[in-house]
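Record type: ASSEMBLY
Status: queued
Input:
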Amino acid sequence: MGEKKRAFKAAFPNTISIMAGSTSLGVVYGMLMETAGISAPWAIAMSAVAFCGSMQFAAVPVLAASVFEPMQVLVLSLMINARHLFYGISMLEKYKDMGKLKGFMVYTLCDESFSTESHCTVPQKVDRKWFYFFMSLMIYFYWVAGTAIGSLAGMLITFDTTGMDFAMTALFIVLFTEYWKKKENRSAAVMGVLASLTALLVFDGVTFMIPAMLLMLMAVFVRKKIWI
Amino acid sequence: MDMTTAEMLLMVAAVTIGVQIMRWVPFALFPEGREVPEAMTLLSKVLPAAMMGMLVVYCFRNISPLEYPFGIPELISAAVVLALHFRIGNSILSIVAGTICYMIMQQYIFV
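Status: finished
Output:
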């Protein structure tokens, strides 16, 4: 018992900014689904089962228009979520030996869990498995709870939350800065930004990711020596 | 016309299957115990920092530099986060200050 409690306590501070970002984005998603005429149970089910923020947003217009095109949605989901391939490759080591917790870790691997877990170090005397597990669990909970609040009680929120979703952007900037501070990561960080900007010049805000990933692969393997 | 329950379920399944395939492929290709090829080890070293760069770019994808407000709220708030994080280095402080800055600009200045 004590072991899990310690891991929970150690994990929580790492997720506070995600709590702000994910919950407010979840509220926005819930409200959006509600206005699209999709009832709260469906919105919550989508967040709990599919658990993939940006793709869920992309699917709202399709659901709102009641167009039954599952194959098209599947292809779109594969494209928008292709970046998870790279997250998985990065987390192969970290998620090793996690036993029965591993299924949950992979099922819920997302931008937020990847970025915090790939970067943070496990504190001393804290069990690594439970530490990562609780982090992923909290991140999962924030998104689903946000969706529930937005879809069930969105109209009751009188506090203006406009702009609160910037917490997620701020988190990514902070984590990017952390990589930047370590000299050995600098060239990779710059390469990622350049590849993404180049792809964004040619493609739009949704489709740029796969070309950006291909550019990164080229950058890594054309001149291997830079990275070793 | 609204979708039936079965149709809605299939739509949820389509979104889910798409993302889950992408999440599981690396772990299925390189199960524990099997040696991970050198190329993958190299990628796992480079990708975290590179993908963080992509996520930052992704967050700014909707800025239109030629239209009001020209991405100014985003750039100023990002500058606040960067300045605080390089100077003080407290993650929570950088994130909270940047977010409050952005909320003020969105709600009161660039309405």
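Annotation: Chain A has twelve helices and no strands.
Annotation: The mean pLDDT of chain A is 91.
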